[in-house]
Design brief:
There is one protein chain. Helix content is about 55%, strand content about 10%. The protein is built from 35 helices and 16 strands. It starts with a helix and ends in a 5-residue tail after the last helix.
Length: about 850
């Protein structure tokens, strides 16, 4: 091994990193770093006496002279057909030595025929040829390789393969440029989108030259400039990320965003963190790249695909349709009439055949900031067109998404510009504020499509029956527009609605409706997930806030859309069930069908007895058992759930020993209901939850009931993320183990210190503990909120034991990575302020993340 070459390369890398941090020229850094690697590779190959009959070729990013600090060193060793074993062994030694350079080495060893064969099966081989660079060895062999690969290249096939490749890559990243931890290289709007454009352009010109055919310049001067500027910014960011984490890392991870931002010179102010400013710059560049990618690929498509060469069918106003593409007869179609800027979108909602805009139309929106007048948003024609788009029957989401991408939406609603690219520092949201908003509208508009009715029948029926459902689209546009300004973003958004409504001459009824939805857009979710919706008083209070069925329907629909757009892990069937129950209960109340607690309990009991076909003796036994529990048990369980428990527990209601039943939760993967029937005793709750934690089970919900005679009926919904084909055996083992621990009073196991997710670490929840006496004064309500992790409930139970707290009832709720638990507890000493303070302090201490 040439140790001097390795030492020289290592020293050069350190010098280049220092120079880059001082001068920040990414192009200069990449060229010099690539050149340093070239010299090291040549020295190592020479030192090992690599055969001059072999051509050493740089491919991938290294072939493009884009060698980042910790990028892979991709090489192709091009072999003559009569390669000797001794020559191949030298390649092995070269590769072993190359790893000493401190970079991951990717390599292929092929003859030209093998390269051609590979290209026929995998378009990647043709891509490697387009960005290959000769390093050393047999230059003639390399020339033959490129010539034969060029002959092999078919542009149409190449274009199609790369286009599909890009679509698949975008799908892996949920087709969004605005993920909170974007991948600088692979995400939509990342470097790979620029590479795709570069490869396809090279292939287009190569194919044209091969056929002695001229093609027009496919990039405008503006696009060429933007590509250079955007590439420079992403190069600059990617180099800094590699150097900061000292490894190959292309993601803008939460844990590095703040330190990276400060290193790059971004400074926090009263409104935004330094990391938020950094990320907004990134999103602006990524959005620009996404647009460039769309426009250039569309231009190539129009040039090479015959359908767009049709004359087209005129649809008025200087526009025509070519196949499914909207085109214009005048590339400056809105120059003398800014209101025409929205015409393509209006036409897209009116003509079902239109699926995309031509390159000419897209390019007309380029450099929009310098071409749009200051009074654009106040023009009557503009406002009229925007309302047409909002009220359209089709294409609403796609138009708003495109308008946001092009920067038009911020021109129409200036406050919307403040949330474009704005991060959301919490445990729930997976996207920036503007992307979450657009995605919420996407989910809402799905309710208008019959093909989705099988998945969301109730929402589809409600959406189609709701008059003027465009009001919901308007509400979602404004629901988070107040974020990042301090204060209650819902109320800020409601005030913005008033301004918008006045400008657009909306009726008082329309204004009031949209304003209500924006102001209360979080209310239904809070009530469903944090309050006891089986309590008629809760329903009555919520109904009094909603007032009308029309409002309730709108609030229900935007709540579902809002939650679903928050992130892929936030929505589940459990939340859907809670919201649906709240909707029906409130709708019944508003229609005069409200129930009192007594009526509800009696109806539940009668329905269970009727559905179960119990005989007289069984009914008597059930009635006697039910008398032991208060109204809360019947209010918090459905008829189906009480019926299941009644049938399973019927033969075990008189036993003194413990009994456990379980079943899967319908519609919620890896979730089970577990019910424990036992006698009340010390440390009971702690023993149950510690048993669950020992099986690595997370508690999604828990409802604890202590009967008048000391019987306890505890209901849990648990999640097992490690379920497999033997889940039945696992839960039978859990059942036996739990009964054994309870009845034999086995010692408590220590709480497991569960690991936190990266998201939880970077967006921790400040623990909250509230303790207050109930109306009667004998019991206390304890509310706890904190970041969830395995074992946390068992840890809380330990504190109860330490302070001799008796648990009466509990409602455990896990919302994503946040717990919000309410306990009804008792201990005579809770009336002592000092004792209560010590108890609360102990809880806060174990809830704080540093303790784990």
């Amino acid at each position: 091994m040439n140790q001097q070459a390795v030492t020289d390369f290592t020293n050069e890398r350190q010098i280049l990193a220092k120079e880059f941090k001082e001068h920040s020229d990414p192009f200069e850094y990449l060229l010099k770093h690539t050149h340093a690697a070239d010299e090291a590779i040549e020295a190592i190959c020479t030192d090992n006496n690599l055969s001059p009959r072999i051509a050493v070729v740089a491919v991938g990013g290294y072939g493009r002279c884009e060698l980042f600090p910790f990028s892979d060193l991709d090489l192709l060793f091009l072999l003559p057909e009569d390669i000797k074993d001794s020559e191949l062994k030298v390649i092995e030694q070269v590769l072993n030595d190359l790893w000493s350079l401190g970079l991951t080495v990717g390599h292929s060893v092929r003859t030209i025929d093998e390269c051609i064969s590979q290209a026929e099966e995998d378009i990647t081989a043709q891509t490697a040829m387009l960005e290959s660079r000769f390093l050393m060895g047999d230059a003639g062999l390399y020339k033959k390789y490129t010539e034969r690969m060029e002959v092999q290249l078919n542009f149409v096939d190449f274009f199609r393969a790369k286009f599909i490749e890009q679509q698949q890559r975008h799908l892996r990243f949920q087709e969004t440029t605005y993920a909170l931890e974007p991948n600088i290289k692979e995400s939509p709007g990342g470097l790979r989108d620029l590479h795709i454009v570069t490869w396809i352009l090279k292939a287009a010109y190569l194919d044209a030259a091969k056929k002695n055919k001229e093609i027009p310049t496919l990039l405008t001067n503006y696009e060429q400039t933007k590509i250079h500027e955007d590439m420079k910014t992403l190069f600059w960011l990617r180099i800094h990320v590699h150097l900061l984490v000292n490894r190959h890392e292309d993601r803008l991870l939460f844990e590095i965003q703040e330190s990276l931002a400060k290193e790059l010179g971004f400074k926090a102010d009263a409104d935004r963190r330094a990391s938020e400013k950094l990320m907004q710059q990134y999103y602006a560049v990524a959005s620009s790249i996404e647009l460039l990618n769309d426009v250039i690929l569309q231009a190539l498509k129009e040039h090479f695909v015959s359908v767009t060469k049709q004359k087209g069918v005129s649809i008025g106003n200087g526009f025509l349709v070519k196949g499914d593409v909207l085109d214009t007869e005048n590339e400056n179609f809105y120059q003398n009439d800014p209101a025409m800027l929205l015409m393509p979108f209006v036409l897209a909602t009116e003509h079902r055949e239109i699926n995309k805009f031509s390159t000419t139309i897209h390019r007309a929106y380029g450099n929009l900031d310098k071409r749009i007048p200051d009074n654009f948003a106040s023009l009557d024609e503009v406002k009229s067109s925007f309302l047409k788009i909002l009220k359209a029957k089709k294409g609403v989401y796609h138009c708003l998404k495109e308008m946001n991408k092009l920067g038009i939406l911020s021109k129409l609603i200036p406050p919307f510009g403040r949330i474009v690219g704005q991060l959301q520092h919490d445990l729930f949201h997976a996207y920036t504020v503007d992307q979450h908003t657009i995605l919420a509208i996407s989910y809402l508009r799905r309710f208008t499509k019959s093909e989705n009715a099988h998945e969301m029948p109730l929402m589809t029926e409600l959406m189609m029956s709701l008059e003027d459902n465009w009001r919901l689209v308007a509400a979602l546009l404004f629901h988070d527009i107040g974020k990042g300004r301090g204060g209650d973003h819902s109320r800020i958004g409601a005030e913005e609605v008033k301004i918008f409504a006045k400008s657009y001459n909306l009726t008082p009824e329309e204004t009031d409706y949209i304003e209500f939805l924006v102001r209360e857009h979080l209310t239904m979710s809070r009530v469903a997930q944090k309050q006891d919706i089986s309590d008629p008083e809760v329903i009555k209070k919520f109904a009094e806030k909603v007032v009308s069925l029309d409002r309730l329907t709108g609030l229900y629909l935007i709540t579902v859309a809002d939650i679903r757009a928050t992130g892929p892990k936030v929505w589940n069937s459990w939340k859907a069930k809670l919201l649906e129950e709240l909707f029906y209960a409130t709708a019944n109340f508003l229609q005069g069908k409200s129930l009192s607690k007594t009526m509800l309990v009696n109806n539940r009991r009668e329905d269970v007895l009727k559905a179960g076909n119990f005989n007289a003796k069984e009914k008597e036994k059930l009635e006697q058992f039910w008398e032991d529990f208060d109204v809360g048990y019947f209010m918090r369980h459905s008829v189906d759930n009480i019926l299941w428990q009644s049938k399973e527990l019927l033969d075990h209601m008189d036993r003194k020993s413990s009994y456990v039943i379980y079943r899967p939760v319908k519609g919620l993967p890896n979730a089970y209901e577990v019910v424990v029937l036992t006698e009340d005793r010390n440390e009971l709750f702690a023993r149950i939850v510690s048993t669950f934690q020992s099986y690595r089970l997370s508690i999604l919900e828990a409802r604890i009931y202590t009967g008048k005679t000391g019987r306890v009926l505890d209901h849990f919904v648990i999640i097992d993320n490690n379920l497999n084909s033997s889940s039945e055996e696992k839960f039978e083992e859990l059942k036996a183990d739990l009964i054994n621990r309870l009845d034999n009073q086995l010692p408590l196991q220590p709480p497991i210190k569960g690991r936190l997710s990266r998201h939880s670490k970077n967006f921790p929840i400040t623990p909250e503990v509230q303790l207050r006496a109930d109306a009667g004064g004998s019991h206390y309500l304890l509310s706890v909120a904190a970041t969830d992790r395995l074992g946390i409930l068992a840890t809380i139970a330990r504190v109860f034991i330490e302070f001799k707290i008796n648990l009466i009832t509990a409602r455990i709720a896990t919302l994503g990575e946040r717990i919000e638990d309410v306990f009804v507890i008792e201990n005579p000493r809770l009336t002592d302020p000092q004792f209560s303070a010590e108890f609360e302090t102990a809880l806060l201490k174990i809830l704080e993340l540093p303790a784990f």
